[in-house]
User: Which sequence fits this backbone?
């Protein structure tokens, strides 16, 4: 069964460093998403991506964040100059129009 | 403001008892509706979905949900809970005019023997 895969499963980084979280969505899907979940809190929308551009983004998704789909298969989230409060689980998801979203297992980011 | 509400932050039920988790939404039109489950340290797994048609939908693991348009609700039910059902449950909606998934705040389910 096709699935969304995310790497790494856990990343520890020092405050101020840049991190790139990687996702391989399901191959024929058209919509791609990043969500984050701070420990014990709700799942928060960050950004959606369609047709090689950002279609929606939340107020959380400020200039510190960027997304790319560099090669037609990977979908990356870059966080520049990480802050302690960026520590969270980050989920990638993809979907075909008018279907449910399929989520990856998440990347746990710890900023120290 | 448009929102998804899960009024119960935490529910505890005995194994074998019935379960109902509440979800309400506030959107002008009927959205697409979903329930996801998140086990500890895991990602989000789809339990069931509603797009149109029969308002009672069946999902995996013995779960079902009923869409009630008049109440703007999509409550999740299970007649007999198993210990392995202990997890976090999220209701989600996506507007059929857009593509962003909006999640509720989640309900944490504890199952006691």
Assistant:
């Amino acid at each position: 069964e096709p699935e969304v895969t995310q790497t790494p499963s856990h990343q520890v980084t020092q405050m101020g460093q840049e991190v790139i979280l990687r996702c391989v969505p399901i191959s024929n899907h058209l919509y791609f998403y990043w969500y984050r979940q701070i420990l014990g809190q709700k799942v928060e929308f960050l950004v959606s991506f369609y047709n090689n551009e950002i279609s929606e983004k939340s107020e959380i998704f400020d200039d510190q964040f960027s997304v790319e789909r560099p090669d037609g298969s990977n979908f990356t989230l870059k966080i520049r100059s990480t802050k302690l409060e960026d520590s969270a689980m980050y989920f990638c998801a993809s979907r075909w129009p008018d279907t449910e979203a399929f989520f990856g297992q998440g990347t746990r980011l710890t900023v120290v | 403001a448009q929102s998804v509400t899960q009024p119960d932050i935490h529910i505890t039920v005995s194994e074998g008892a019935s379960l109902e988790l509440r979800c309400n939404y506030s959107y002008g039109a009927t959205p697409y509706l979903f329930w996801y489950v998140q086990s500890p340290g895991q990602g989000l797994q789809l339990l069931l979905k509603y797009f149109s048609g029969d308002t009672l939908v069946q999902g995996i693991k013995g779960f079902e949900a009923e869409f009630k348009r008049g109440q703007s609700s999509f409550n999740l039910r299970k007649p007999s809970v198993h210990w392995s059902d202990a997890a976090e449950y999220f209701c989600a909606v996506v507007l059929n005019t857009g593509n962003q998934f909006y999640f509720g705040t989640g309900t944490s389910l504890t199952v006691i023997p």
